[in-house]
Amino acid sequence: MKNAASTLMTLCLMASGLAMADTVTIPKPVPYADDALIAGKIKKECDIQDQLAQFIAEYGREDHQLDVRFANSVAVDAAGLVLDIHIKDAVSEGNPFIGHRKSTVAVGKLYRDGELIGSFTGRRNSMGGMFAGYKGSCSVLGRTVRALGEDIAKWLAAPSIDALLGDLG
Question: Which fold has domain 23-166?
């Protein structure tokens, strides 16, 4: 029974365009977009660039059997699968006393051997969840990045053009 389920999953992944043997290369850290206006405190105090790459790899591997490889930077014309991803926006408003309002936006394009095969824009918002009054700003912003990483990993398993992920979908 397990063998049949494994075979079925492999066939589904192959049909979606990404088989288990495919390796997706992503940048780590995920760079900020050139036109992004990210607050200096977020850049200095929060680790969302490394976290996003790590969560994409973690959820891709665990939930979708994807092989994700990190690179310092990516070239869209490189051989194989390449995810050109950027953090477009990150907002950290509020605090534990008046309430958190955090969000992160990421945009990405997936290339296979230099040919565009998928693109997305994703956003996740968080007010901190349970016990938000005991959480710091970077911790709550990290929740948005974790959720985005999960969204992007799911999209990588079945990429499409102009997908809207997370709270945009």
Answer: Rossmann fold (3.40.50)
- State the Cα–Cα distance between residues 26 and 90, nearest whole angstrom: 20
- Return d(Cα 111, Cα 114) in angstroms, integer: 5
Between CA 46 and CA 78 the distance in angstroms is 30
Residue 132 DSSP one-character state: G
Q: What is the pLDDT of residues 51-69, one digit of tens each?
A: 999 999 999 999 999 999 9
Backbone φ, ψ for residue 124 (5° rounding): -130, 140
Helix axes 137-157, 48-64, angle to 10 degrees: 40
Nearest Cα to 24, choosing from 87, 111, 98, 89? 111
The structure's pTM equals 0.83
| Partners of residue 120 on adjacent β-strands | 108, 163
